Structures are given as structure tokens and as C-alpha cells.
Amino acid sequence: MCGRIVQKSGPMDYVERLFPNPRRIFSDSAGPLYNIPPGTRPLTMHRLAGDFDVDRQWWTWRPSGSKYAMNCARLDKILGNKWPWKMLTGHGRILVPADGWYEWKPLTDEPKPPKQPYYIHATDDAPLFFAGLSNWRPDAEKDEAHGFAIVTNDAAGGMVDVHDRRPVALPADLAIHWMDPEFPTAQAVALLEHGLPESAFTWHPVRQEVGNSKYQLPDAIEPVPPMPPA
Fold first, then answer.
1. CA gap 219, 157 in Å, rounded
2. Is the CB of residue 12 less than 8 Å from the CB of residue 25?
3. Which stretches of the chain are assigned E, i.e. beta strand?
4. How far apart are CA 169 and CA 160, in angstroms?
5. What pLDDT is recorded for position 165?
6. Which pTM was predicted?
7. Residue 72 catalytic?
8. What backbone phi and psi angles, to 5 degrees, belong to 175?
9. Tens digit of each residue's pLDDT (9 = 90 or more) over 75-120
10. Element (H, E) at 185
């Protein structure tokens, strides 16, 4: 996962996928975003304070005293109860709703080859729910110290020949359990091995402009002819 996601749907589109009859209305003035990088504040869904909520959190977490800022949390490290993720699995489980994400495929074997960007999304275009781990605290600054990382599975295999790492997208029923603070930690972590399979996704090449995260036009996700090999 190269660290770019798409959130083009509105908050209620994501919420109603999990809760068909929500008791609250969630709005967001930011509008659709087609190219979200780490170091920004995407929509997140969670129960970190008890009640279900939708808000924006900082995508990248820098553990206290660490020089490393992380936007991805490797599944093998989480399953092994390794630092720093073991600090968050009990109380920091969130969902990052998305419509898809981008990957870049090298076109040659050169040291710095040209790359073709791809947009990956559900075959039925349904919303996706990426598992995340957050160090969010009530009333804390939404910064790196209290940010989040998206869980990725490096052993699942890539989308054919696009990438070997991909985010863990949970089915709706498992996504609800993942963010439930009363769901036992060990069982919640075990859910991460049941993310959507490769067959749940499709992908196509998109325009080179998506390499710049400031490119936010709707045509960012539209298919284009692939670049010819160099």
C-alpha cells in the first residue's frame, strides 16, 4: 500500500453500510476527496470514547520517544504482539472508510523506473472499511502523537502484479466487532486475518496526475490507457 486513499462518498454513505438505520446524522463539510495522503486528516469511524462517532484523525502515528512516524501497521507485527502496536490493540481500534486506494507499478527493472498508477476498489464499488490503530485521546491534539496507522497485510499477496502489500479491508460484520471496545482484544486481532480476499477487488490504470496529492479532481479515479513500457 503506497499510502493514498480515496474518500469520495459522504459520511452517511459509509455509516449506513454498517448501520442501516443510524440514529444520528453525520455531516462533513470537506466534501469528496480523491487523493488523500498520510499527514492529513481522513474520515475515521470509531468507538474510542464509547459511543460510535465519525471524525477526522491524523493519518500517521509517531510513538512517544520514537524517531519513526508510521502510516501503516504490519499485520505480522500485530499478530506477534510486537511494539508499538501492542499498545493500541486493546483501546485504539478504528475503521478508516474508503472507496479505494492507489498503487504504483514499475514499468521497467531500472533503479528509478517510470511507474503506472492504479486505482483499486471493490468489484461492486461498495465502501471499504480499513482496519486502523489509533492513539487518539479525548481532547488531545490531532497530531502525530495521537495519530493512526492503517493495518496492512504484507503476506496476503498483491493485486496480481500491482503490489505485494495491501490494506486489511474488513467485511461489514467484522468491521463492527473490530471497533467495539468491549470485544475481546485477542478475538479482535484474530479478525484481521479475515480481510476481504483479492477476488473482492478490481483495478485499472489512472492518470499520472494522481502522483501529486494536490490533484483532487473526480477524474483521478477514471480509467485511462496504460503507459507503454519504456
1. 28
2. yes
3. 5-7, 33-36, 43-46, 53-56, 72-74, 93-98, 100-106, 115-122, 128-134, 148-153, 166-167, 201-205
4. 17
5. 79
6. 0.95
7. no
8. -60, -40
9. 999 999 999 999 999 999 999 999 999 999 888 888 888 899 999 9
10. helix 185-191
Q: How far is CA 18 from CA 42, 52, 182, 191, in A?
A: 18, 11, 18, 16
11: enclosing H helix or E strand: helix 11-18
The one catalytic residue in 2, 144, 182, 193 is 2
C-alpha cell read off for 164: 505485494
Residues 7 and 127: beta-carbon distance below 8 Å: no
Cis peptide before 229 (omega within 30 of 0): no
pLDDT of 144-196, one tens digit each?
A: 999 999 999 987 666 656 666 799 999 999 999 999 999 999 999 999 999 99
Give the three cell numbers for residue 193: 486475518
At 63, the amino acid letter reads P
The three grid cell numbers given for residue 82, joined into one nine-digit string:
510486537
User: Which grid cell is 104?
Assistant: 504504483
- Residue 228, all three cell numbers: 507503454
Query: Active site includes 103?
Result: yes
Query: Of 16, 103, 141, 209, which residue is the catalytic one?
Result: 103
Residue 189 neighbours by CB distance under 10 Å? 21
Range 156-185 burial, b when 16+ CB lie within 10 A, else e: bebbeebbebbbbbbeeebbbebbeeeeee
Burial bucket for residue 148 (CB in 10 Å: 0-12, 13-18, 19+): buried
